[in-house]
Amino acid sequence: MAHGHAVKRYSGLMDWLTTVDHKKIGILYLIAGGFFFLVGGLEALLIRIQLWKPLNDFVSADTYNELLTMHGTTMIFLAAMPVIFALMNAIVPLQIGARDVAYPFVNAIGFWTFFFGAVLLNVSWFTGAAPDGGWTAYAPLSGSTFNGDHGMDYYVLGLQIAGIGTLVGGINFLVTIINMRAPGMTFMRMPMFTWSVFITSALILFAFPALTVGLAALMFDRVFDANFFDPSGGGNAVLWEHIFWIFGHPEVYILILPAFGVISEVVSTFSRKRLFGYSSMVFATILIGFLGFMVWAHHMFTTGLGPVANGLFSIATMLIAVPTGIKIFNWLFTLWGGSIKFTAANLFAVGFIPTFVMGGVTGVMLAAAPADFQYHDSYFVVAHFHYVIVGGLVLGLFSGLHYWWPKMFGRMLNEGLAKLTFWTFFIGFHLTFFIQHFLGLMGMPRRIWTYLDGLGFNEMNMISTVGAMLMGLGTIFFLLNVVITAFKPKNAANDPWEDGRTLEWTIPSPAPEYNFKQTPLVRGYDAYWKEKMDGHTEMTPAEPIGSIHMPSPSILPLFMAIGLFITGLGLMYSHGEWGKIAGIEAGFVVGGIGLIITFACMIIRSLIDDHGFHIEPEELQDKGVKA
Amino acid sequence: MNRWQFFRKLAPLLALMVLVLSACGRSDLSTLRPQGPVAEEQFGLMKLAISIMLIVIVVVFAISFYVIIRFRRRPGDKTIPKQVEGNHKLEIIWTVIPIILLIILGVPTIQSVFNLSKDHTKDPDAVKVVVTAHQYWWEFEYPELGIKTAQELVIPKGKTISIEAKSADVLHSFWIPSLAGKIDANPGANVNIMYFSAPKEGVYLGKCAELCGPSHGLMDFKVKSVDESSFDRWTAALQAPTALPSDPAIKEAFVSKCLTCHAVGDQGGPAFPNLTGVGSRETVGGILVNTDDPKYSNEGSTYDNLHRWIEDPSAVKPGTLMPKVDLTQQELDGISKYLSELKLDYEQ
Prior knowledge:
The structure holds two protein chains of two kinds.
Chain A: H1 12-18, H2 22-50, H3 61-95, H4 104-123, H5 151-179, H6 192-223, H7 237-270, H8 278-291, H9 307-319, H10 321-335, H11 344-367, H12 369-375, H13 379-409, H14 415-441, H15 458-486, H16 527-533, E1 548-550, H17 556-572, E2 580-581, E3 584-585, H18 586-607, E4 613-615, H19 617-623
Antiparallel strand pairs in A: 1-4, 2-3
Helix pairs in contact in A: 2-3, 2-4, 2-15, 3-4, 3-5, 3-13, 4-5, 4-17, 5-6, 5-17, 6-7, 6-8, 7-10, 7-11, 7-13, 8-10, 10-11, 11-13, 11-14, 13-14, 14-15, 17-18
Chain B: H1 3-22, H2 37-70, H3 88-116, E1 127-134, E2 137-142, E3 147-150, E4 152-156, E5 161-167, E6 172-176, E7 180-185, E8 192-196, E9 202-208, E10 221-226, H4 228-239, H5 248-257, E11 263-264, E12 267-268, E13 283-284, E14 288-290, E15 299-300, H6 302-311, H7 313-316, H8 329-340
Helix pairs in contact in B: 2-3, 5-8, 6-8
């Protein structure tokens, strides 16, 4: 133990609270994201129950607006993003032959800030007022003039804290993918999922600061009575729309690109074929990411930007259809001539392709600004983005989870139950949302608490609600599957699907703490498949067996996030709600204490050297792991 | 698989599609049944886009189904398919064809963008209307005619209506699906313009299309298209003096408790909906439909609707700024009766 340090290694709950291991952080993201997916799903079901008949009063108008706001916010920021991060964490380092991410400590900060931001946002349900200004939080409805209770404060501060987690996570994966690829893994040999995560991380790096700025400005409006967005004080409401969508549109691609990556992997594996047109796939992904920043104003065609802006943004938006079309056809031609095995993971992937196309074509329809004057803010838009986000992203995530479950947990999900999940969820999804296109075209605006009788909306809304119930049932089947699987023995093989093509399938399931006993040498695209075709059973190592340097666990990230949580809570109640302490608002005092906790943790981290620890070769042999 | 069997399986699906499409909604509400040139132009673009997109969908679905059925793995199949890297010819085809389709859609889009942004605010033939959206009601001012009304936009048929839309509080969006697409009503000095016309007489449903608070979904209005002479009679009637309630007690209550916010004729305050001619409007509060033959719970006689609204406004529209005014039962009945009889006689 040449560099040996006495590093405390925890077990049980403390292990999870202090972990900096990307695989465990991935599982934490999955648990938290899965939980919030259930919360958001429950909110969706309440929304659909309220709308199942005209003039219903199942929930009040105020509660309904809280539900729609929290459903959108929860699903985007607290469910979709963390589950994406779960897959990124669990898989990307394995796919590039790395032992961890570039900054394991930062990775833990990313998770905990996300988690406490998410908790802060949901605390609002128990303090009297949840956010109710829509997930887009358009000013001035989201400002203190028209929204005097604390609901939108939770939105602003909760998202700000959760956003820190996403931003540092994105940076971490950029650095990891650039610097930590195994020898021989050039950029153009990277698996498609890693490519999509790379582009997504770049989008996060450029898009999330816009949200941070917007939320900071809105926070100043609400907490310190500034006037960025309130016209009565000289602010500009349209400014918020721009800032929000400059973040918001790239966010859509941040969400969907990883799903594209998952589909590329799954379709290729289960048709036993190389991904068709790999380089054009990479090119298309980059182009989508780039164009994603050029189209934000298509969310604002009715805002009154004038014909030149509307025309330009129409055309720019339509252009995105071209690289997306390339991807669709590349997937179809990957399947073409293949030997397609319909596992549950592949069912989700194959179901994704036509479903996503339906969401894509309505996207092009929405891009035509004059027609968008009719679609905008109607149920047509609701149908469109649910086709893209549920029919695209969620099917993609389900596909990825079923595909990589053995690699994450060492157990195969039950195929029968998984297929049942697919069919109920898939049919339920189309039943819920296909009909909503027509509701929108027939004149039903979105975000309405109820609708009058006799407008011709009744039957379609009823069908939609039935579909939502089916989706709920599908989700229950998935949960059931997870629970049943958890009681099965951990016996998944290294390459449980037998057709694995990439590096993650060369190591045990689940991967050992250090991932690769010896860093593999990558000799081509689809590195493992290439070795298989050359008659090898494992990768050629790129280094002799040696001691492996590991980062040590730390509780500091958890406390940093708790500090920010306290700060957020304090800032909200700084208008006399909690009285004064020594002449200063108690809310500010509490906020200050939170910041002190966070900064103290940062100082501790900066001043105390932590060299990590080493796993020695003898230890590797003892465990008898096959790497 | 027999090809005909495949199509026979698809037939019920197609029949369902046709059924859904034929039920295109109400002609006074649906974007699929346009009643004016602006909505018609937008519907034309929608039809073009839908046709192009149906082609795309059919192609993708056809390839998907073919691939799924044709290339299934047979049990025990251990063969390794040919590892194809790509195909330049195919890749160029599926890059170029979408570009062509987009040009076909893009050119009319741009034409229409400029056509629909025409400014009619200086057009002497157009009827100008300043639309001011409030949390949860619509104010319509005709600056050239010097009149103001609420909830019901009366227009002469066939004439171009030039709209200047703004908001007095939060964002709203002005939408008459069967006549024209929407435009946002922004607060501040951020006025948006649009135009439309209704060649046929009739009542069209208008909606708020931007989340504006609890009663966003109930912020409906009506557009009533009448012939030109009726319109002239309407504008004249709006400016004619309006008699207050004849019963002195009701009059006293009406003046002290209603006219502080509302106006009738030349009396009262301008801050909230102008009530001149409220008895001849199609609805009370935009959503309680006035009819002698009520079918739904939001319908009733004009008197009943007014009574229901005044008795407890926030039970009808949660979050409305109109408070529950402290009225005796007689005052409530009397004011409801007076308002329900406050009609403008302009239609023939």
